[in-house]
Amino acid sequence: MREASFIERNKEKWILIENNLRNKINVDPDVLASDYIELTNDLAYAQTFYPRSKTKDYLNELAILAHQQLYRDQKSSENQFKRFVQQEIPEAIWQLRRPLLYSLLIFCLAIAIGFISAQYDLDFVRLILGDYYVDMSIANIESGNPAGVYQGGSEVGSALAITINNVRVAFLAFVLGVFYSIGTGYILFSNGIMVGAFHHLFFRYGVMQEAMSAIWIHGAIELSVIVIAGGCGLAIGNSILFPKSYTRLESFKRAMKTASKVLVSTIPFFIVAGFLEGFVTRHYQVSIWLCISIIIASFTAIIYFYIIRPYQLARINGWK
């Protein structure tokens, strides 16, 4: 093929690619990769048949630009991930601060109700936890190992099973928000009642301090993250009930996008909670100070990531 024919056949394609590259237009990465392949193919052809032509030099320059653009996009993907973790998630948490607070209040209220109800009705704990679980816990208490329930099974199996169960509860608290927040409220309330009744069982037998040193090794993160997932669910439900100036569908989409970012942020915490419950809680009698240190560190991490850091960034960036 003569060089003139080669140029005539491909010049429109080259002009379009050049405009995209030189004018710094945002191009879909797949399109950019396809253009780069086209350029390298044309460059190889020109190098073979027109090695001393300006066409070859022109295509070589475009290929270099395309390669640089692709490399920049790869670094941009890394930067986008950092931005997602360091900016978008804290901003989403800040936007959901009220539903997260409501979720915490509902959960704490339910714990108080569960504890007080067990105080005035001795059968309440059995109603909530079941006879088998209560009898097993009493037997552990009498044997001097009140949190012995966490020592059953293998460490790896327990960690996996616990993590999966925690994710299931959080997922339910999240998705049931579509039922106008009622489903999320039920998950928060029922789990809070259970926690309150569970703690009263140990309080009644005078082993509250020892039991809490075990329970809250993993519970500090586990229960905190369930509350956070509940806040996400409430945000979704509220977006349907109170769409403000948006349509209900648009309000729901916006809330779902924001809440999903917050929910994604809980995944590492669930993994840590599962690890602690499977591998660490069973050794709670080794050192009370180790237990306290883990509990403090866990609450500190939660408070920093979900309260302090979003507040700091909100003041810096002027988030509303």
UniProtKB/TrEMBL annotation:
Membrane-spanning segments: 100-120, 223-242, 262-280, 286-307
Q: Which Pfam families match?
A: SpoIIM
Q: Does the keyword Transmembrane apply?
A: yes
Record bears the keyword Secreted:
no
| Keyword line | Membrane, Transmembrane, Transmembrane helix
What PANTHER family does this protein map onto? SLR1478 PROTEIN
Descriptive protein name: Stage II sporulation protein M
Task: Specify the species.
Answer: Sphingobacterium phlebotomi
